[in-house]
């Protein structure tokens, strides 16, 4: 049965959204699906955004149908009420699950969330939390379109452009477990924002952009900052869009702003002789999210009250509150996250402590403007930073005009001779753009339309252990062999030139993979003897046992590599026996990096 609809799902750090378009229409007619959700115990409302929070209720709270949804009951509550419960019961509420999917220093399939909660608290894994969000939006779709099963539709699921192979594969795992179709497509969120703009302006985009223009997509969401460069070129007399580069995974965004505001509020509580214990501090963090959104909105109040539940003997059963004012909050967040800086500045690096908690690795430098400067420097030519002619804002943080205006002012300072960068003209729905853009892209993919080209956004490498005498206590040096260059197109393949490599078969072995978003000149066969952390980042290693052929008496087989990017964006790395016998395949998804 062929798909009737294309469905775009924004699995956001703070909010998730579903948009769709009927494939039978002449043009993409993208619409939003209101998602039923609990807004209070026993109260269900439909809203276009589903907060990406998971409240782990207990059976007693579900009595009397208090947690019932139109499609049934679950004690894992997703949505608005879960978000509200984060301020009251942070030890039973999961947030930022998407950021945890990208945190390779923890086992993301193990029940570790809520992070730091006591042993008596029921926990879930980051993969399970993502699955719960997707199960909720899938159930909402089934209720609204019972005759169009979601597993039979064309589904586009968005991920950060900076997600590595492991994070993308875990996202896909959660999606399939939630009942989404096997052939779902992963799309980079900044590209989805561009597609949303294309959907909004239609054919006018060719008058708003010209050959030679460079578009900076600056996407600052709840948990991450994603940066992407898209150029405008000409082919056969037609304007085309090409993705030039993507940035690294930056854990800085609205969550950091909430935390900064919470620290400011905690000082105000201390002035009232009200010290906060750890869980009150977490609750305050969540409360400051609402305060930030209210104070920075266009018609926001001059003051906003923030309260925490009392836990000391003087305030048991009560609450303690303070008031935050609009001007102080705006100054704190503007100068803390969008300070004026030089284009030559780089993000500050804090000296690492010998002992660190395994929580989320938030950026040491919260200055998004410095991260943008470093990104433009990294992708320029001959020590000249690349200059964007336009900027497309995306993410809930930029709903505040002050942040947009400051970013434009900073770009104006950096490129004063060229007139700075202009905000891309047209309507911008920052809350729903990613989901809308995913649906528009899916329609264009099936029915034809403007596509952003560019191939893989990264080059991919395998780690090769060097031969030589062993040194006690020291690992053998590792070299990185490029197997897929940046820009390799879907549906293409290549032999990797170079010397034969020894492949371990018949016993467990670890295979290490690396990627780079800045080494644009490396070709298949390029070997790196050393590199900096800024050049290459290690993705999840693969531990597996490759079977030995019956004719092979040794566990060490000489092979050559053959790389292929499938139409679904999977990098297949074939190890081909040099003597003509044996073929082994290693694969991991690069779909959100591939040309979409």
Report low-confidence residues grouped into runs of 5 or more.
Answer: 313-317, 589-596
The computed structural class is alpha+beta
Mean pLDDT level: 87
Biggest sheet layout: 6 strands, mixed
Strand fraction equals 25-35%
Describe the SSE topology:
Blueprint: E1 5-11, E2 15-22, E3 31-32, E4 35-40, E5 43-47, E6 50-51, E7 54-56, E8 68-69, E9 72-73, E10 76-78, H1 80-88, E11 93-94, H2 97-101, H3 126-144, E12 154-159, H4 165-177, E13 185-188, H5 189-201, H6 205-208, E14 214-220, E15 225-235, E16 238-246, H7 254-271, H8 278-295, E17 303-309, E18 319-325, H9 326-337, H10 368-378, E19 390-394, H11 401-414, E20 422-423, H12 433-447, E21 452-453, E22 459-465, E23 478-484, E24 492-504, E25 508-511, E26 513-516, E27 527-528, E28 537-538, E29 542-545, E30 556-565, E31 570-577, E32 583-589
Parallel strand pairs: 1-12, 12-13, 14-19, 16-21, 19-20
Antiparallel strand pairs: 1-2, 2-3, 2-6, 4-5, 7-10, 7-11, 8-9, 14-15, 15-16, 17-18, 22-23, 22-26, 23-27, 24-30, 25-29, 26-28, 30-31, 31-32
Helix pairs in contact: 1-8, 3-4, 5-12, 7-8
How would you sum up this structure, described in words?
With 596 residues, the chain is an alpha+beta fold. The longest helix has 19 residues, at 126-144. The strands form 9 sheets. Strands 1, 2, 3, 6, 12 and 13 form a 6-stranded mixed beta sheet that branches. It has a 6-stranded mixed beta sheet with strand order 20-19-14-15-16-21, sandwiched between helices. It contains 12 helices and 32 strands. Helix content is 25%, strand content 29%.
